[in-house]
Structures are given as C-alpha cells and as structure tokens.
Amino acid sequence: MKKNTFLIVSFAIVMAMTACSPKGIEYDIDFSTNNKGKIFVPYAESDIDIEEANPFASLEEYNTPAEVGPNKATSVPLTVMFLRLFESAMYRQIHQVSGTYESVDVHGKKITVSGKLMYPTDGKIKNLIIVSHYTIGANHESPSESFNPEGIFATMGYAVAIADYIGYGVTSDSIHPYLQARTTALNVIDMGLASRALLQKRGLKCASDSIILCGYSQGGATTMYVQYMLENELNTDFKIKKNYAGAGPYDIARTYDYSVKKDVTGIPCAIPMIIQGMSVGMSKPLDMSYFFKEKLLNNYDEWLNSKKYTVKQINTLINCTSLKELLTADAIDKSKPETMRFYQELQANSLPTYFVPQAPVYMFHSEDDDTVPFLNSQIVQKRFRDATFAGENVNVEYDFGLYGAHTKGAIKFIFKVASKLD
C-alpha cells in the first residue's frame, strides 16, 4: 500500500409544470411505483482501497489557501488537504458496482444507460447520495470507468450513485446531449431509483429514507434541475434531505450572452459541446456549418464524439478562447433566425425562472470562477431572495467567495460538502 497516496478526490422559455417535455414529448417511463420498475444490472464490481485510489494525481499541481485566517501567505498542498478528508473517513474500503439501467433519451424513448454505485463494504449506510457529475470529455473519465471525487462520501458511510450520462459508458457511441436539462436530470433520477432497488435487493438499508443531491459545474446545474423535477413534476417517494449545488451554469442563455459580450470562454470545448448538445434535442437539428468556423467545423466531431480526449486535451486542440475565432458572425447574432432557434433552446434548458426549492440547498460558487461565470449563482440567488420577500419559505445557504479558478473551486466544494455531511 502506498503510504503517500492521499489524493482521494481531486457543472426564458418558461416550461409548463407538467410531467411532459416542454416540447410535448410523452416520456416512455412510469413513475407510479416505489422504484418505478428500475433495476440496476451489475457488469463489474469490486472492493477498492481508498488509500490506493489516486485517479486525480494531476491535480497535485494546484495549491489551496490554508484556512488560517487573512493575510497569511502559506498554502496547503492538496495532498495535505485530502489527508484531512482521508482521516475523517469511516472506512478504508468501499464496494463499487458498475452497471446498467433503463432511462430515456432526448426524444423520450427508452434507452439502456450506465453508471456506478459505491457504498461501505460493511453495508452500514447513512443516506443515498445521488451525484450529478461535472463535464468530462473522454469515456475513460465516465463514473462507471473511473473513480469520481465524490467517491470520498462512500468512505464516510454513504451510498453514492453517479450516472454516466448519455454519451458515456455503454452509450459512448452516442452524442452527449450536453446541458439538455430534462433528459440528463431524468437519467440521474433513474440512476438513483435503480441504485436504491439494488441496495434493497441486497438487503442493504439506509439509516435514513431521505436522499441527498450533489453536483458541481455541469453537475451543479443538473442537480438543481433534479430537485426541480422531483419537487414539481415527478411522482416519486424520494424525500430530499439537502441539495449541494456548486458553480452550475443555471442560466445557460445568460452565460452564452456573457461569453459573447466578453468574447472569451474559460472552457473552449464547452462552446461546440453546448451547440451540438442543444441540437440533438431539437426536432430540427442545427447546422454546424452555420455556427462553426472552418477549423472547429472540420475537427469537432473527432474531438468531441470520439470520446478519446479529456476536456483539457480538447481545449488544447481548440487552442483558442475567443468566441469570434471559433464561431461565425451569424452564430453570435441573435437577430438571425437560426441563432434565435439555438438561443431559445438554451432558455428552455436553463433552470426554470419560477423554481423555488422546497428542500434545503447549499449553493457554492467561487466569485473568480474562470469557467462558469459567477453571474449564474447571482441570478439564482436573486430569484430565491425575491421569492423569500414574496413570502415563500426558501432555505438556501450561500457560500460565495474568492476560492480560485473553477478546478480549485471544485476541490474546495468537495471538501466543504464532506465537512457538512456529518
């Protein structure tokens, strides 16, 4: 066992509040029974020693400010930071199960997708945590194929369910419907239902029947949409204990406006991913040649859809942060009908403006985030505060601060969630 291995862990068209898609699609899914008929079919499982799990060693290059008060120049290396998490863990070994379950695609049709469930080897489980994962590029980064940072929660006595999302795992040949809010949220919810069914089948019972939601970045937006759907649209018996949402693109239309205005993006691969992701959910797909300039047009399919490249590698291949260098002039002109069709899809997949959470929410965002602009959390905070002033009972804890760039923020988020869970 490597004694120095401690890196355990390393994101409007108002939709009617119905159980149907905003496009009128009836989903091929039944939400009328306990686990909604969901089953999780394992295809790989093993015990893993957390001290040996080190999938994010590359994050050692980052340092995190020490929590020793203001005006201190010292910093704490990630190895030390995660050592603290490791020492707080109840279990050194956890059991992980990769498997498949049934969900729906962007057209509401049944599809077999995959994910991973992790839980303590002794079967003593506090709660089920349903995680929505951050943006990935390569298939080997998908939860079923790797060890996600949120796996640390399993060492603390929780069962952790993480969906791969369509486009990864057993559906890696499919285009990932990036930021398609409803479809991705349903995939996550179905993963939670299927995971609960597997735990029950194995005679494993959570001490609490409530669930915890969690997600950062793409996962932050998804976990908020999961809460919206569970509280407003779906007839499940899931009771949300708390939702931990970090740095999500909650309003992707406003985020697109912000990036166009600034002519810069902190995550270049997200630009073609968003445009392609919106397109796959539309009845009439977008023409990529209308949006992408020549270099991106000639290469995006290989870079994004081969699933060979990580986000960092795709960004390196794109080698540009200016939207004007990536996109055509028409693509950023909302007076053009095709651009407006795309923009309306962004609005339709943003968090509904009328959403008011019923269960408690912890919102985290670094104010100097270079990838998902802080304005996303500011927008949602204003909506929730307006709802409070209007007499709604809104229980939200806001944790905003100068926590560094997006990746550093992710590390801080995982650390804070872990400290709050118990």
What does the model show?
Residues 1-33 and 55-76 have low confidence and may be disordered. The relative contact order is 0.14. The protein is built from twelve helices and eleven strands. It is α/β, with parallel strands linked by helices. The strands form two sheets. A nine-stranded mixed beta sheet has the order 1-4-5-7-6-8-9-10-11. Helix 3 (218-232) links the parallel strand 8 and strand 9 (240-246).
Question: What layout of secondary structure does this protein have?
Answer:
Layout: E1 41-49, E2 63-65, E3 75-77, H1 78-88, E4 93-104, E5 110-120, E6 128-132, E7 159-163, H2 181-201, E8 211-216, H3 218-232, E9 240-246, H4 252-262, H5 270-279, H6 288-291, H7 294-305, H8 311-318, H9 323-326, H10 337-348, E10 361-366, H11 375-389, E11 396-401, H12 406-421
Parallel strand pairs: 6-7, 6-8, 8-9, 9-10, 10-11
Antiparallel strand pairs: 1-4, 2-3, 4-5, 5-7
Helix pairs in contact: 2-3, 4-10
Summarize the entry for a quick read:
This protein has 422 residues and is α/β, with parallel strands linked by helices. It has 12 helices and 11 strands.
Largest sheet: 9 strands, mixed
Counted beta strands: 11
Question: Can you count the helices?
Answer: 12
Low-confidence stretches: 1-33, 55-76
What characteristic shape results from the CA principal axes?
A: globular
- The percent range for helix content is 25-40%
